[in-house]
Design goal:
The protein is mainly α. It is built from eleven helices and no strands. It is about 85% helix and about 0% strand. Helix 10 packs antiparallel against helix 11. This is Type II secretion system protein GspF domain-containing protein. Keywords: Cell membrane, Membrane, Transmembrane, Transmembrane helix. It is a multi-pass membrane protein.
Amino acid sequence: MNEAQMIPLIAAGIGFISVLLAGYGLIGYFGGASESARLKERVSGTTVKRSAALTAPVTTALKSSVDIFSRIGSKIGPTESEEIDKNRMRLVQAGLRKPDSLKIFQGVKGGLALLLGGGFLLLRYLFFPDMGMAAIGFGTVLLATLGVYGPEYWLSKKINQRKLALSDELPDALDLLVVCVESGMGLDQAVDRVCHEMRTSGPVISSEFKLLTLELRAGKARGQALRSLAERAGLDDLNSLTSLLIQADAFGISVGRTLRIYSDAMRTKRSQRAEEKAAKMPVLLLLPLVMFILPSLFVAILGPAIIMSMDMFTHMNK
């Protein structure tokens, strides 16, 4: 047996040993995690979930990565207070409200820029050594820019999705508020009740009302709490509603009547938005219709005629 015939056998043996070692490693990992969970149960006297024990290394790695991004963000993030407040408010409007969210977000931007730019340079060094300096500079700057502005685009999309969810859930929440207020509840109690009732059907508006309730319980003035709600949501309709509630509270106007009028207006506006989307559908369907459906239809209708014409001209030439 020559050397050429031995190479596939050696490669197969190396592959078999690698798979065998990987299998033993996985068995040892899962077995060690289960044994660790049993030891924790004996020592603490409490029940430890096996799934938590198995995912503990992954969780630890994620926490370490988050800490690294947080440290990077604290170094490269903005230093002006106005810029910090603006970026933090955008994260709040997107639903990212942890204390270190701004640092982590800035760190992700810097990490992606370094990763994409450095990855491009590494690929150029390994596979494209003859690439010109202009192409290297353009590709590095382009990918680094993508790493910086990609998270910003994702954040903008997340803010818009949250605003859309708020605008869809707000009319139902207002209807429940009207029912609660007209049944004799105060506005604070009605907001707390709606928060509990809409946890499943309207999780976004429920979370906002939950924060409003916590601020009111902490002693914050109702007007300031409502203004904070409008700033967190970043929605014009909710901003108008909070202004109406503040004015109704200041001038002694019936809150139930104010909510009923605004609820009717919001329901009408939601119907108009649905009608607008329905009216845009024919225009949106025009492009796939022209690009995909009509060519297939033409092939199905005109294909046999074209084939018959080609056969007829072929026979005529003969």
